[in-house]
Amino acid sequence: MSAAPEPFDVAIRDESIRLGQFLKLANLIESGSEAKEVIAAGQVLVNGEVDQRRGRQLVKGDVVELGGQAARVSDESAYDDLPW
C-alpha cells in the first residue's frame, strides 16, 4: 500500500464545512454532481477512512483524500501573517 499524499491546506471561513462543498473548494472535483458520484462510490477518504456521507461536517485539521491528492481543512486566519 502506498503512503498517503502530503496534504495541502485549504482555508475555510466557518467552523465547519460539508464534505461535498470542501471537495469543490479544494478543486479536487469540478461540480457538486461529481462530488455526489465519487463520495457514493467510496472514493473519498476522510482522515484515512472511506466516508460516503456528502453532508459530513468537516472541521479544521480534517484531511480529505481523493484520486491521489489530499487536502487539509485549515483556518482562514492562519494566512493573516502573509506579507501581501
String of helices and strands: EEHHEEEEE
Overall form: globular
**Low-pLDDT residue spans:** none
Estimate percent helicity.
Answer: 10-25%
How many individual β-strands?
7
End-to-end Cα distance: 41 Å
The strand order across the widest sheet is 1-7-6-3-4
User: Total number of helical segments?
Assistant: 2
Verbal overview:
It is a single chain. The chain has helices at about 20-25, 30-40, and strands at about 10, 15-20, 45, 50, 55-60, 65, 70-75. The mean pLDDT is about 90. The chain has a five-stranded mixed β-sheet with strand order 1-7-6-3-4, covered by helices on one side. It has a two-stranded antiparallel sheet with strand order 2-5. Helix content is about 20%, strand content about 30%. It contains two helices and seven strands. It is globular and about 35 Å long. By secondary structure, the protein is of the alpha+beta class.
